[in-house]
Amino acid sequence: MTSTAAPPVPAPSRPAPAARRPRRKWRGWLFVAPFMLVFALTFIAPVVYAFVLSLYRDQAFFGGTVFVGADNYLQVFGDPKFWDAFRRVLVFLAVQVPIMLALALVAALAIDSARLHGAGFFRIVIFLPYAVPAVVAALMWGFIYGDHFGLAADLNHLFGTSVKPLSENWLLTSIGNIVTWEFVGYNMLIFYSALKVIPKELFEAAAIDGAGTFRTIRSVKLPAIRGAIVVATIFSIIGSFQLFNEPNIMRNLVPNMIVTNYTPNMYAYNLSFNGQQYNYSAAVAIVMGVITAVIAYVVQLRGSRKEM
Questions:
Q1: Which of 121, 123, 126 is closest to 100 using CA atoms?
Q2: What is the DSSP letter of 149?
Q3: Looking at the domain assignment, is residue 197 inside a domain?
Q4: Interior angle at CA 12, CA 11 and CA 17, nearest 5
Q5: Residue 65's beta-bridge partner residues?
Q6: Which of 8, 31, 191, 263 is the residue whose CA sits 20 to 30 A from 104?
Q7: Which residues fall within 8 angstroms of residue 268, CB to CB, at 6 or more apart?
Q8: Is pTM, for the whole model, over 0.90?
Q9: What is the pLDDT of residues 190-239, one digit of tens each?
Q10: If you compute the radius of gyration of the chain from its CA atoms, what whole number of angstroms results?
Q11: CATH number, position 119
């Protein structure tokens, strides 16, 4: 009689060890910590302090400050001087920014083409005004615009005209010309840098398809630098809403034309340093900052959707 051996009983399997979570590496934060510290001290802290100031109001007769909540903001929304300044920079933005960006784009396309002789020279010449400080540029153009002295007076005397760049009808246009002269080169450099990284294969494919110069610009170059155009537009919008140096410097030449609320930044500045209304000035600055951020975000969102 033969006996059959019982099959071996398998040993109970051990549960698989739980997957360890990757340890978070904080080493990268050590490299960005100096920047974050400076950023917090120079940007976040002043914004927070300005917001806290905007919630209070200085009591002139009773002394001290009292918490008023959103009263300062309600006053800003009903302040005709603020909205007059805001409409002025809005008109400035709607006219000056498209002209400036169009000139910068044409300059970048011309320099990027192989048909312009001395492209490096023109690139430096167009960019050079950006290196001039805004205060110096405003003073220089202010003396050029003078109708009793400078270039404008000489041209009026030569041709028998009476063009006054610092008159009420031409003042905003004259300031726009200064800003355009300063920042065309800056935006040109943004567009030119974007043009230089377009893959050469796209130009070869366009040439094979028989596309000419203008068709290549419209169908290849402009779509490829749409992101750069959006960035330059956002920077220009922010700069327009922050308009301060040029009208503030030229105010000494035409004090009757450029009032204290000529731009929102000038209004906030004069409220704070000349009127000693720090709390209301902070509210004006916060409102203007929020409006600028919202408009810049909308432009960025629309640009991103078109690019996608």
A1: 126
A2: S
A3: yes
A4: 125
A5: 58
A6: 263
A7: 281, 284, 285, 288
A8: no
A9: 999 999 998 888 888 888 888 788 888 888 888 989 999 999 999 999 99
A10: 30
A11: 1.10.3720.10
